[in-house]
Specification:
The structure holds 2 protein chains of 2 kinds.
Chain A (H helix, E strand, L loop, with lengths): L7 H9 L5 H19 L2 E4 L1 H16 L11 E5 L26 H8 L3 E6 L33 H8 L5 E6 L5 H7 L2 E4 L19 E6 L2 H11 L17 H4 L8 E5 L9 H16 L3 E5 L7 H16 L18 H12 L2 H14 L4 H25 L2 E5 L15 H6 L5 H6 L3 E8 L5 E8 L4 H14 L1
Parallel strand pairs in A: 2-3, 2-4, 7-8, 7-9
Antiparallel strand pairs in A: 1-3, 4-6, 5-6, 5-10, 9-11, 10-11
Helix pairs in contact in A: 2-3, 5-6, 7-16, 9-16, 10-12, 10-13
Chain B lengths: L4 H10 L6 H18 L38 H5 L7 H5 L19
The chains are: A alpha/beta, B mainly alpha.
């Protein structure tokens, strides 16, 4: 079976109609991973036993002629920040190098309950901290569209695996752009749902008020299928919302004619690459031709998003990462004589440079004397950034924007300048701070044939409109 | 320079990190560069702006309800009906770097 461009429905139907088996399909993906992944580096751990057991279950259903669940037999893979029972989960960090979780992340469990076959765990920046996947403690990921370039981050493995046809769909996580930016760099669809839409139970926490789980897929329809499966209230996450989940797939059928689409000048200004700007402008024109009304909106506080984000995110991270102390799980330094020495040395030896930098920045921002000036200030600015969106969404149904100021950059290009790396998150962090959903959908390529992503943002819990606009762009592209 | 070597040593201590001399020098540079950018937040007057710690209390809850009532849905069954089953003891210890089968083992706690 040809794995290129294989969508969820195509894979499921092939298994349902017994043109192939779920087991044979999983084997073909493993063969593809074995031949292609050494040059890409998307996978950290394969979960063959678990995958083949699930495939056998699906094949038994198909043999009996029973209707397969929505993801029946569909090979997927999971970012290594989501815990998987019995399958090593490292969060891209040496501190969890040997960690074998005793439970499953809710989103992964829901995928499997709907028939998905989990092939393995995907490379990412350590604790999801990074925009290039170069902060993985294990190996960098190479962009399948151009191996000299980064796949984006932090869900770089999740985007690369889909782009290189090594999984039909993957799960990633987004705290400041970590699903949408790699999706745009690799030319796939990356969806960040509303905060609270998908349970975070079993997601290794980076910044709890900003972390989201979402799908990376080849098409918008596939994103709708995966989101429908993983969304919804989970008693294990008190921040997961008790709001009914629409049938995102059925909602895609509704036309976009008459929708009001906002364009914010703050997202098309200085610093945006010219080729990206023309691609975004062309995508906006295509939406207009499909009957959308294009409306100018303003998000006046946009330039303060990066500073506010890097305070809020690092403060929460410094607190969340305090749990890695070498006591209950994870790496423990061998040479420590006292408890305090053990904490310090374990963390020193097993955390990478970016993780230490963020722990330091977050701890500084929360420390006595600086709390008001940094953390409280950033929380207030978070309110202003959220109000910007609230005001804009009084006028429009969705907002379109670029995902990243540039296309995929070269490996090594920004590793020595953390601030430059942070500044490249300018178009993505605000949605995380406000908790609104965002998606990246391919909208063309640069002269160097690098993919460009169009970002679509919508109101809280209105992923349906976001997905409809994304599909309209996808069809026009 | 806003952040000094001394600040870095103090904050590393709070964060349970040691950092090598080389790492400390680099950290002084990085923190100053990042905080320099973050200082732009002071251009904004936020006197009457409430802080926002999370989004769940603005969205996804019934706005007609007050206080903790808004989050009543988030109470777990176990709060009403006794303890939820937790991990079996041996499973909870499986990932421990050091254990005697009953407890996690750590180096000496009291330093004298």
């Amino acid at each position: 079976m040809n794995l290129d461009l294989l969508t969820i429905d195509a894979a499921r139907s092939a298994v349902q109609e017994r043109k192939t088996s779920a087991a044979a399909l999983a084997e073909s993906f493993y063969a593809k991973i074995e031949s292609d992944d050494p040059k890409i580096g998307a996978f950290l751990t394969l979960s063959k036993e678990r995958a083949m057991a699930k495939a056998a279950e699906i094949d038994a259903l198909a043999a009996k002629g029973e209707k397969l669940p929505p993801l029946g037999g569909v090979p997927v893979a999971i970012k290594d920040v989501m815990v998987t029972k019995g399958v090593r989960t490292t969060a891209g960090s040496k501190i969890l190098g040997n960690y074998v979780p005793p439970y499953d992340c809710t989103a992964v469990a829901r995928l499997e309950a709907d028939g998905a076959v989990v092939l393995g765990k995907l490379n990412c920046d350590e604790f999801a901290m990074g925009s290039s996947n170069e902060n993985s403690a294990w190996k960098p990921v190479h962009n399948p569209r151009d191996l000299t370039r980064v796949p984006g981050g932090s869900s770089g493995g999740s985007a690369a695996a889909v782009a290189a046809d090594m999984a039909v769909a993957t799960l990633g996580s987004d705290t400041g752009g970590s699903i949408r930016q790699p999706a745009s760099f690799c030319g796939v669809v990356g969806t960040m749902p509303t905060y609270g839409r998908v349970s975070r139970y079993g997601l290794i926490a980076f910044a709890s008020s900003l972390d989201h789980i979402g799908p990376l897929t080849k098409t918008v329809k596939d994103a709708a299928i995966v989101l429908r499966t993983i969304a919804g209230r989970d008693p294990m996450d008190s921040t997961s919302a008790d709001i009914p989940v629409p049938d995102y797939v059925a909602e895609l059928e509704r036309p976009v004619r008459g929708l009001k689409i906002g364009v914010a000048k703050e997202y098309l200004g200085e610093g945006l690459d010219k080729e990206i700007r023309s691609a975004i402008e062309a995508a906006i024109q295509k939406l207009a031709r499909q009957g959308c009304e294009i409306v100018d909106v303003s998000l006046p506080h946009t330039k303060y998003a990066i500073p506010a984000y890097y305070i809020v995110a690092t403060a929460e991270a410094s607190s969340n990462l305090a749990r890695f102390d070498g006591v209950r799980y994870g790496y423990r330094a061998k040479d420590a004589h006292t408890l305090s020495e053990m904490y310090r040395r374990s963390r020193d030896q097993a955390f990478g440079a970016e993780v230490k930098r963020r722990i330091m920045l977050g701890t500084y921002a929360l420390s006595a004397g600086y709390y008001d000036a940094y953390y409280l200030k950033a929380q207030k600015v978070r309110t202003l950034l959220t109000r910007d969106f609230e005001d804009a969404f009084k006028k429009v149904d969705a907002i379109v924007a670029p995902v990243s100021p540039t296309a995929a950059f070269k490996l090594g290009e920004k590793v020595d300048d953390p601030l430059a790396m942070y500044l490249a998150d300018i178009y993505t962090v605000t949605a995380d701070l406000a908790g609104i959903p965002g998606i990246s959908v391919p909208c063309g390529q640069t002269k160097e044939k690098l993919p460009i992503g169009l970002q679509i943002l919508a109101r809280h819990f209105d992923e349906s409109t976001m997905l409809r606009v994304a599909q309209a762009s996808e069809k026009a592209a | 320079m806003k952040v000094t070597e001394k600040d870095v040593a103090y904050v590393a201590d709070l964060g349970n990190l040691e950092l090598t001399a080389e790492e400390r020098t680099r950290m002084v540079l990085d923190l100053n560069s990042i905080l320099g950018h973050i200082d732009s937040l002071n251009e904004l007057d936020t006197t009457n702006v409430p802080p926002m710690a999370q989004v769940s209390d603005r969205y996804g809850v019934d706005q007609s309800k007050q206080g903790s009532e808004r989050f009543a849905y988030a109470s777990r069954e176990d709060i009403h009906e006794g303890l939820r089953k937790s991990l079996p003891h041996d499973v909870a210890l499986e990932n421990a770097p050091d254990s005697d089968g009953t407890f996690f083992k750590v180096p000496k706690v009291i330093e004298r």
